[in-house]
C-alpha cells in the first residue's frame, strides 16, 4: 500500500469540519501550529484515494469561500509508527488514573488506578487533550457520585469505558461504529482484567441500545456528531444523569452547550486543556 501525505493551511474550526467529511477516506487527519503560528492540516491517505480526496477538499474550500490551489502530495516515509509511539509514550498521571503502555517497566503507583493502553489502531491513549479532559472529568465526578449504568459512546480504544469500570466496578457498555475499535476495546479490557465489566458493541450511534437508560454517558467524538446525536443521547440519559462531552475545540464549546441546553440539560463544569474543551452536563429531574 502506497501512502501519501498532503499539507495546507486551514483554521482549526474548518479542519475539524473537514476531518469529519473525510474520515472514511483517509488513514489519518491532524492539524498543528507551525513556527510561523499558522495552523496546518495534514492528511495521510492511500494513493488510490488522491483524486477523490482532492475533489472533496476543493469543493469544501469553495463552499467556505477559500482559495484552493492544486497542492502536490508526497510519499510518506516507511517506518514503524507504533514503535515510534511506544518510544515516545511516557506514563501519564491524569486525575485518578495512571495510563501506561506495556513498555513501561516501573512499579505502578499504589494511590492511582492503573490502565494499560498501548498505542493501537483506535483513538484513545490518553495523550490527546480531549481524552485527558474526559479522564479528569470522570475523576471529578467520582469525588461526589457513584454510577451503576455507564455508557461510553464512540469508545475508540475503550479507555473511558475502562476508566469507569475501574472507578465503580459496574458493567459498562462501550459502543463504536468501527469494528476495529470494538476489537481493540475488547483486547484492552482483557489486558486490564476488566472484561467482566466492559461490553463492547458495534453500533451506529444509539441504534442497538435503544430503550436502554444510562446514568452516565461519555462521548469523546467531535462537535458536529455530538450535536447531531443530542436528542438520542438525552433520551438515553436518566433524569439527574450526567454526560461528559469532549472532542471539541474551545471555540466550538458554546455551540454544543446551546444545543444540549435546548434538550433540558445544564452545564456543571467546563474543563479547558489547551485549545480543547470537555463539558460536564446534567439532566435535571422533572418538576
Textual characterization of the structure:
The protein folds into 2 domains: 3-75, 2-Layer Sandwich (Alpha-Beta Plaits), CATH 3.30.70.240; 127-283, 3-Layer(aba) Sandwich (Rossmann fold). Helix content is 33%, strand content 30%. The protein has 9 helices and 14 strands. The chain has helices at residues 12-22, 50-63, 81-87, 129-142, 159-168, 179-191, 223-228, 230-236, 250-261; strands spanning 3-9, 28-33, 39-46, 74-75, 92-94, 97-100, 113-116, 150-153, 172-176, 198-202, 214-220, 237-249, 265-273, 276-283. It has a 7-stranded mixed sheet. A 4-stranded antiparallel sheet has the order 2-3-1-4, covered by helices on one side. A 3-stranded mixed sheet has the order 5-6-7. Helix 4 (129-142) packs parallel to helix 5 (159-168). The longest helix has 14 residues, at 50-63. The mean pLDDT is 88.
At a glance:
The protein is of the alpha/beta class and 287 residues long.
Q: Estimate the helix proportion, in percent.
A: 25-40%
Unreliable segments of 5+ consecutive residues = none
| Rg over alpha carbons | 19 Å
Task: Let me know the largest β-sheet.
Answer: 7 strands, mixed
- Report the end-to-end length measured between terminal Cα atoms: 59 Å
Tally of domains: 2
What structural class do helix, strand and pairing data support?
A: alpha/beta
CATH superfamily of the largest domain: Vaccinia Virus protein VP39
Strand order of the largest sheet: 10-9-8-11-12-14-13
CATH class category name of the largest domain: Alpha Beta
Helical segment tally?
9
CATH architecture of the largest domain: 3-Layer(aba) Sandwich
- Briefly note the CATH topology name of the largest domain: Rossmann fold
What average pLDDT do the residues reach? 88
Order of helices and strands: EHEEHEHEEEHEHEHEEHHEHEE
Compute the number of strand runs: 14
How much β-strand is present in the residues? 25-35%
- What characteristic shape results from the CA principal axes? globular
Amino acid at each position: 500500500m502506497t501512502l501519501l501525505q498532503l499539507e495546507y493551511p486551514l483554521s482549526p474550526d474548518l479542519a475539524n469540519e473537514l476531518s469529519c467529511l473525510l474520515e472514511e477516506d483517509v488513514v489519518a487527519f491532524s492539524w498543528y501550529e507551525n513556527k510561523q503560528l499558522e495552523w496546518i492540516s495534514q492528511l495521510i491517505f492511500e494513493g488510490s484515494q488522491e483524486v477523490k480526496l482532492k475533489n472533496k477538499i476543493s469543493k469544501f474550500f469553495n463552499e467556505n469561500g477559500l482559495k484552493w490551489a492544486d497542492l502536490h502530495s508526497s510519499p510518506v516515509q516507511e517506518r514503524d509508527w507504533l514503535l515510534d509511539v511506544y518510544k515516545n509514550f511516557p506514563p501519564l498521571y491524569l486525575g485518578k488514573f495512571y495510563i501506561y503502555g506495556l513498555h513501561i517497566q516501573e512499579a505502578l503507583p499504589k494511590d492511582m488506578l492503573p490502565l494499560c493502553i498501548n498505542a493501537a489502531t483506535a483513538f484513545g491513549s490518553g495523550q490527546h487533550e480531549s481524552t485527558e479532559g474526559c479522564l479528569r472529568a470522570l475523576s471529578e465526578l467520582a469525588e461526589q457520585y457513584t454510577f451503576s449504568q455507564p455508557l461510553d459512546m464512540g469508545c475508540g480504544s475503550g479507555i473511558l469505558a475502562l476508566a469507569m469500570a475501574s472507578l465503580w466496578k459496574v458493567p459498562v457498555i462501550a459502543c463504536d461504529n468501527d469494528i476495529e475499535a470494538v476489537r481493540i476495546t475488547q483486547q484492552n479490557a482483557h489486558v486490564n482484567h476488566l472484561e467482566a465489566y466492559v461490553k463492547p458493541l458495534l453500533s451506529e450511534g444509539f441504534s442497538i441500545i435503544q430503550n436502554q437508560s444510562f446514568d452516565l454517558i461519555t462521548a469523546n467524538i467531535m462537535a458536529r456528531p455530538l450535536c447531531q446525536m443530542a436528542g438520542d443521547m438525552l433520551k438515553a440519559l436518566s433524569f439527574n444523569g450526567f454526560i461528559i462531552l469532549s472532542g471539541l475545540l474551545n471555540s466550538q464549546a458554546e455551540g454544543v452547550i446551546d444545543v444540549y441546553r435546548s434538550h433540558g440539560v445544564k452545564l456543571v463544569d467546563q474543563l479547558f486543556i489547551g485549545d480543547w474543551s470537555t463539558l460536564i452536563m446534567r439532566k435535571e429531574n422533572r418538576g
